[in-house]
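Hello forum,

I keep getting stuck at the same step: I have a sequence, I want structure tokens, and every attempt I make locally crashes halfway through. Rather than fight my setup again tonight, could one of you with a working pipeline run this one for me? It's a single chain of 69 residues.
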Amino acid sequence: MATYQVLYWGHLPMRVRATDINGQKYAELSSRFMEAMNRASKAQGMDGTVMFRWSAAQEREGTAEEVLT
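Reply #2:
Ran it on my machine without issues. Output:
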């Protein structure tokens, strides 16, 4: 069993973190999400750092690596 969380900038998903008994693994999402964040932060005149938040942890069957694939 593993848990996973999604890192959001505002409403845009940026990264996924999965954790199991062996530790944590991370997966970056497509660069198009980073590009969308950059456009949105420029349009809002922000540096973007205050908008990051992790979702609540969710459980999923499998290892952390399997959850990320």
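The chain has one domain: 2-61. If your local run keeps crashing, start a new thread with the error log.
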